[in-house]
Design goal:
With 66 residues, the chain is an alpha+beta fold. It has one helix spanning 48-59; strands at 11-12, 22-26, 30-35, 44-47.
Length: 66
């Protein structure tokens, strides 16, 4: 990860009730994702366009929990 950790603002979903959730952060050219239970671990990085498409698919119900 090339982004300065001081400039990164992590956020959790408003639906996270346990505190042990996935966190995301906007970086310069990517979206970062990490496990809130291991904040010091290396986050996953996604190109912004890939993340945006993923979020659209979630909101449009293209994934099933079953």
């Amino acid at each position: 990860m090339n982004e300065s950790s001081a400039a990164i603002s992590w956020r959790k979903s408003s639906r996270c009730s346990s505190g042990a959730c996935v966190e995301v952060a906007d970086a310069e050219h990517t979206v970062l994702m990490r496990d809130s239970k291991s904040p010091g671990g290396e986050p996953l990085e996604f190109p912004r366009g890939v993340w945006t498409s993923f979020m659209v698919d979630i909101k449009e119900g293209r994934f099933s929990a079953n």
